[in-house]
Each structure stands twice: as structure tokens, then as C-alpha cells.
Amino acid sequence: MALSRLSMITLGFADLQPSTAFHRAVFGVAPNDRNEGVVFFELPGTWVALYPLDKLAKDISPDLLPERGPFSGVTLAHNARSKEQVVAIFDQARAAGARIVKPPQDTFWGGFSGYFAAPDGHYWEVAWGPMFDFAPGTLRFKPEAAASAA
What we know:
Blueprint: E1 8-13, H1 16-27, E2 39-43, E3 46-52, H2 53-60, E4 75-79, H3 83-96, E5 99-106, E6 112-117, E7 123-128, E8 132-135, E9 138-141, H4 143-149
Parallel strand pairs: 1-3, 4-7
Antiparallel strand pairs: 2-3, 5-6, 6-7, 8-9
């Protein structure tokens, strides 16, 4: 059996309370915080879980140290439906306390994107690309883009 999609992303945080408030403001939905020590945000198609970094490291392995450098090599991304929506999401993230790392701008690949960092350092890219289309619950290449890539 293949892993055909992501169903949950778990992010480790040093301080869960401000991280929960930040993500609630950015996602625009209330979390399901009925579980002791972990906060779930139910988003269409994928859930995001916030978990204390030290507990997440211990859950993976008792020998794993909960250390993070300034960049882990992982970014989270949201594809928007327009350039204007990218800018609006950045405005919302900034108001919630995000640090803007790279303001939205035209890209080398023909799209429009930028990066912000959540208060605990996780990097988010918000992008729009003319080659993407949306179907209920999924992002896909536009048919004409997929045909030209073949």
C-alpha cells in the first residue's frame, strides 16, 4: 500500500499557548483542544497538530534531543487562488504575529509567493501559480499545464 496523501502534519512547539493562538488566527478556525497536551486544527483534507517539542521528540525516540536550528529544511505551504489572496493571507499572518521572511513577489517559475515564520520558527510559503487549479479538497495541475508537462 502506498502513502497517497498527507492526512496530518504535526508541528513541535516550545510554547503551545501562543502557537495555538497564532495558528487559530492564521487558519481562521477554532482548534479541537479536547486532547491533553496536543491541539488539532481540522483543515480541509489535512489536519495540523501542535504538540510540545520536547514531548514530540520523546515520542519519536527517548534519545532524540528536541533541538532545532534556524532552518530545518522543511516548509509548509498553502496555494492560494490569486495574487491578491496571497497578499491578504500575508496581511492576516502579520497581524497574528508572523515574521515576514520574504514578502510576496513574482517568482522564477511564473508564480507569486513569499515566506513567513510562525512565532516558533516554522516556515510557511503562501503561493499562487497559474499552472494550478483547485478541485474539491485538492490542488492539481490545470489540464493544459499537465498536457504541456508530458
